[in-house]
Fold Dynein heavy chain coiled coil stalk domain-containing protein.
Amino acid sequence: GEVGARPQHREAVVNACVYVHQTLHRANARLAKRANRTMAITPRHYLDFIQQMVKLYAEKRADLEEQQLHLNVGLGKIAETVEQVEEMQKSLAVKSQELQAKNEAANAKLRQMVKDQQEAEKKKVESQEIQVALEKQTKAIEAKRRDVMADLAQVEPAVIEAQNAVRSIKKQQLVEVR
């Protein structure tokens, strides 16, 4: 398989291959000193190593791509959430203005109701005062009527007597008076 690496990845892969090659070379040198023998490293070993590197690179790349996809999905969801929050904030601002307008209208209505109630209470007090004045006036009129009736009762016999006296005057007597 071909390793389609970016320049910085290619350099890292090359450096890893060089490091493994040098490490094997040093390990072989130590083995030669200690045991007086070496490991035979053939081109086939080196090709197997390269295939393992390609496989490892592909696995790591797939893992990274999966992580990248996962992060992109997460970022997409965050962006979507931000958009929803902005929409909600706009909606909240509109509803807040509506609420404020309705509160102001309700407060104005309440003030009007309080004013109307105060006016009604004032008129009720005035009505009660007029009622009291009417009752006083009615009592005064009744007292005056009783006084007048009492006076009339005293005068009535004299009036009846005068009427009778006037009736008893004869025409002849009136002619004589003239």
